Each structure stands twice: as structure tokens, then as C-alpha cells.
């Protein structure tokens, strides 16, 4: 009888200790996210609908038709480009053709710089190699479309495949300098291989591209041929950039060690991007041969590579349409505005580059994205 009250007291003491520990755990500060997760707040707590039902009609309509706006804008741009030769003088049509060729080169470089994080200063080498191959095929075999274009793309891909496996092993500034050295190597080869490239004088008198047995001599016909091929190249790179492979390339660009730890063969992914970019650059070179009917060592030299990189920076690295816009600005300043400035077009490009770096660190594409928010 005397032991029973003592046992009851011990049980009450243990229960009291358990209650104290429970109260102490409840009183401990919790991370803000955990508190919010346990107690619904906002529309859910008040019984109001959330998600699309909670959005205003105008916002929901914008979200519903948002993807249609870029598609409609792209269709309008393509239609305008297709109709341009009907309203432009031959010189303006030729300039626009040159812009399309250089834009395809810049977009292929953006696959390396903006999507893959591989800043290259030797990309013009594959552009020039494709131009020489297309010119050689046109002179010695046939200029019928699309054989010279395919020869240019294949040569650009082969040149990139031969040099890319060494290049992608380097990182950062080492990759930049290595691509510069490889580009200068091919540039010197073009200057000294007289029997194939014509040496310092270049490859001249390239026949006009032929379609259905008829040569494309008029500026408008050449423009439409270049436009069709350039749009195909743009579409190819756009699909690659939006694919899971493109997402993996962006992951490698942002954090390659983490992607490697996740099991991605990062070096193979970068090498494939390098070869693809070389193929598209070679195709752009094939279009250059069809448009200019002249290829010189300068087309694969440092100046061309630097201008392509400048176009990517001005337009915004990582944005394919931004790179095309930057290419248009570069060609307009170099070929249209520059001659009226007594040869100071390069100086103006330098001023534009400095202004973009300081005022628009993400290029023209970054400004458009900021305005669209």
C-alpha cells in the first residue's frame, strides 16, 4: 500500500518530463519554409482558387497565347525577308545577302560561346574551309545546288573534328588561345597552298550557283537561295539548343564538374557541339562562295573570327536570334557606314562593343528580355 503512491508519483513525473520535451520541441524555431508548409496561407487558406484560375483574365490570356507571339513575330520576319528583294535595290539586296551569310556564322559560333561556354577565336577557320571547298567543287565538278553547300558543310565538320578533340580538352583562356592558334594554322595553310586555294590571291572566278540547270546570276535569286539555306541552318541550331542535349550543354557551361559527377560524358558533348558548329560554319562558307564568287585567306583569318565573336557579344551570348542581330549590325557598320567614315568603321565597332559591355552586359537579347518582363 505504501509503495503504490510512490509509483504513481514516478509515473506523473515521467509524464510531466515528456510533456516538457514536447513543448520544447514545438517552441524550437523552424525554417521559414517548414512553417509555411505546415500552415497554408494566402488563397489556399481563404478557400480561393490558385494557379491559372486565380489569375486575371488578361494574364491568363497572355500565358495561354504567349508562345504564339514569338511564332507570329518569326513568321512575319521570315515573310519580310522573303519579300525584301522585291522592294530593294541590287546593292541593298547584296548587302542583305551578306548579312544572312555572316548571321549564320555568328549563330553557329553562339552554339559554342553562349550555349556550351566555349569562347572560340578560331571559328572563322571552318567558315573559310567550307568556302574554299564549295568554291573548289563549283570550279572543278559542278555548281549545281546543293552540292557546293554540302561540300562546305562537310569540310567544316571534318576540319572541326580534326581540331576539336584537342581543343575541348582545354578550358577558359587556354581554350580561347588554342582555338586562335588552330585558326591561324589553317589561315597560313590557305595562304601557302597555291595549287588548291590560290594562295594570297585567293580562289577567284567561282561559277554562279545553278538551280535546275540555270545559273543564279541576279542578286535576288542568289538572295533567295542564301535565305533558304540560312533559315535551314538557323532552324537546326534552334532545335539543338532547345533539345535535352542543348540543356545538357548549358549545364556543362554552368558547372561542368557537377555534370560529370551526374554521369554526363561532358567532353564528348562538347566535342559534338564543336563539330556541329563547324559544320554550320562550313555551310555559311559555302553560301559565301556562292554569293561573293571569291574566297580569300582573309575569310578564315583572325579579323573574321573576331567580328563573329563581336556579333555574338553585341547580340547577347546564348541567344541565337541575338547573334543574328549582332551580325547585321556588324555588317552594316563595316560595309555600309564604314566607307563613309574614311575607313573608321572598325573604330566605330570598337565603340559599340565597349558601350554594349558597359551598358548591356547581356547584349541586345538581354535588353529585350528585361523589357518583356
UniProtKB/TrEMBL annotation:
One of its GO terms (molecular function) is branched-chain amino acid transmembrane transporter activity. It comes from the Bacteria. The keyword tRNA processing does not apply. It is a multi-pass membrane protein. One of its GO terms (cellular component) is plasma membrane. Residues 1-60 are annotated as: Disordered. It is found in: Cell membrane. Residues 9-33, 45-55 have a biased composition (Basic and acidic residues). The chain crosses the membrane at residues 68-89, 95-113, 145-166, 173-190, 222-241, 268-290, 302-333, 345-364. Keywords: Cell membrane, Membrane, Transmembrane, Transmembrane helix. InterPro entries: ABC_transp_permease, LivM-like. Signal peptide: none annotated. This is Branched-chain amino acid ABC transporter permease.
